[in-house]
């Protein structure tokens, strides 16, 4: 290490030069990059050094986690799962019926969808807390996207077939993402984006419920706030007070139970049982008062029996396949994002791991199987999973219990729902949706990161004033733009020496950092790419201009040290940029010095021959080394001094 | 600094803690960010501390650089510009006529476009070497995009009006980009992308010339290689040998002169004058042999006189405005990218600066004025500017000289072009295009950066097999994907101590780096964003797994030091990630330690309260400090030892 008095012991430095990494065959690098991109979790590690049959068992266990936990399953675990399963079933039945209405589908489909998919997930899913079922946002999305093409009232059969087809494509897409290890696509829906998007969707869903609450017969198919308000207030004369009173009473009841359960977490089951209680109370009330004849709409006849097969209903013919495909992909991604986020959150609480790609395969298979058995899109909704978790579930067996409870309902109890008023279902949806508007998270975003808040707000406003797709595009667009802008406008900062240390840090962050006379140290905070190469060239020139303007005295700027420690990567435009900077400052008699380049940067500097232009001896391991070398040259190379080693005074001018 | 024997002097460390930057008002930060994004070159600096009238003068000089250089213009400069101007005029006339044919426009428009725009650029442009004129690629693009909507042979007047309108929009878009300081959009066309795109366009343009070379009457309007080959070989019987022989003779002549001029740079004028020579020779030959009656097509009648105004020709009516707008924006960006890249290259040679945003305003204004005076899209073509530079131009006056030469041609010499054979124009275009296929640059890309090579190849294949737009979309897509992938899969590497120093560097880059027992040091190489948060969480877990697997002995992993020096930014997803990592490793009795966070990261850690969870005393200025602290705790906190300072042993477990 260079000493404070400026001695520049060549031998000592030589041992600490930045090496050029040995060149590796292209295919090796390519394979390594591919592995890091698609298999960062190294799923094949467990298969190493195992025999053939053992590998098959491990492979089966990978795809069917039930094989892992079933052998050690016991009675005490089952007791816990039984209670949790019954609790979520009491929530699943009314929610399933409600959400099916949201997608303009027959209510019975909501029950079907709570029967088959949970069984599939119980075998394939790796989360112990996820409770499978339909979700409000995806239901709304399916409803609004499909009804744009086919009217659910005029062509109900075709509409139903399209819903199954869309679910099939969603499942296929989800499973394909998992199998192709492309799970990171879901990561591009940031947390901020999801918060805004969910709140927007919740607002939109609540607005849609005005139809049920006010007992309206006709309603707009658009989801934006302007159309809905117009639609509601254009038919004030059609409002039915009986319906509204009933609806708001139940809404109040539901919100009250939730409030109570939140205050006393021990009584979580009160809010969990409230929807089913509301349905029973509402049905009894209607049955006794014959309110169905006084403007209160009811569910009506529900077919008894289990899911009929729907393989033959899938529609792959040209005019409709496009809309089914589009709906499937968009709703599939949304459902996947929710399911994985929910699974991860609860896994965090209980300290186990969720494999994102494996979950995608499980959720995808569940939807493929569902689409063949008259189910529509399912995932792991937050509300139901939270109830499951609070009820003390231990394994995915709670899904099986829920599934059996739904099966019994389908076989025996469907006639009981005949008199269930729609307005109660609306109240259940609104109560669930109000819980999705996470204004505290939005406050937190504003407080911590303004750009994230913009993403969140953009998603919210896009969904509320435009449509669900527009909101999504806006949010993803802002998120990606932010990343690109970070790359396009990287920070360059001047470094100074922290007193009594060899550390060099940003002078704007550490007021005590001292600059070195005659030496300008710049740190570049991002990879050098085509998108920022010309910006960086101009910004570096400006730093030099500003630096030289200040100095009118004896020691003018002689060295520019670029700290490349934070430059993770460089492309050919970046290499040209360095070459141009070198040319520009050479003409001003300033020497370019590099500090701490990474191995990829060194490799490219070498293969592009610019390493020779800069001179390997002007590349240092640390900024401190570089400064020591510059100081040595500054103080010992007075006119007349002659040295003949590598870093001779000739190089200075 | 902590000593080697593990003493942990609290007082010394306290002075070197990482400070939380003072919170600034939101608007201040916003303004600073806005300035850095849109005004990185600080164009208002020169206006500071100036009086009102002086500011007006400076502002005029900003927009009209001619005011800067005209006052000191002298005869010797003019002599140089005169020679350069005449040389480029001799190139401009045949090239202008040829490129107009490429855009399916009347040949005279090529001459018009070399008259008005250079005059505008001479006043507003800041490059001294750019020679203004039409370019092959943009001409081809205009031709292929407009002819998709309107047939140039069936509705020539409408087609012409659309070309003017597209030029108007291109100019408006270019000037707007400059005025709105959005010049960085052009940066997203990387060098690699332009190399591939240009080569592809050159190939396509050469293929188009087969029409002229073979004297074909009918030809496909598609530009891809498959359609063109089919079109050429489906009408073998129509091939005219007279035309082909003439064409290949001139092509040979042109390539020979270029080869000669390249070998002897002093005779650059030979290759510069070759096109005009070819035109004269060809015209005389046709006139003498009456070859126009034997299958050699000629230009025919050219109207005498200067540019007629075309204000009334601009078409803003609905069915056509879309295609004009689309064509204008795409060709405008392409033309801008070429003009600015060419201007910058020559400015580099002569050591002066080009202001990208100012150039955009100049090129944009030039095209707006051009569209009103019967010109179509112009920019600074590479070939013509290179000739200008070689001919020794000194200022933009050479453009004025060229303009005057073209004016004289328009007023007096147009009848001379009556007998010019089209095949000579095709030969001129092919010769120019072959120079654009920069296979050496492609080799260089392959050698230095494989991804950049893919971008280049993608652009080339996209243009040749698809269309110009497809090539562009592929190239920009791959480029952006690369940036996003860098963010989505940042490198995390283990650091070790370089012997005899306080530096910690990547162990895979520096084989001599030594790891510290019980401490894992990880460096994260990119900003922590939503796109990589879950990847990083899993990758860090895997590093810990791999590290603990290795240690079976006494010292197991107790500290995880994250070096955040290269983390330029963090968003709320990133903050949550750190929180989760802390939770995960806390359960494994490992302590999280941060080293060298930047000011933005510190600010967000603080405002999100995670700073308190981690503990400010576990955030260090350098990795060396962090290691020293960890070592101190490892060696002095044996069971039973009790300390009461900030970094007490209680924190360890």
From TrEMBL, chains A, B:
Start and end residues of each STAS domain: 509-630
GO CC field: membrane
InterPro entries xrefs: S04_transporter_CS, SLC26A/SulP_dom, SLC26A/SulP_fam, STAS_dom, STAS_dom_sf
Keyword Cell membrane in annotation: no
Cellular location(s): Membrane
Transmembrane feature ranges: 103-123, 130-146, 158-180, 192-210, 241-260, 267-288, 320-341, 361-383, 395-413, 420-437, 457-481
Key words of the record: Membrane, Transmembrane, Transmembrane helix, Transport
MF-aspect GO terms: secondary active sulfate transmembrane transporter activity
Membrane topology label: Multi-pass membrane protein
Protein name per Swiss-Prot or TrEMBL: STAS domain-containing protein
The organism of origin for this protein: Canna indica
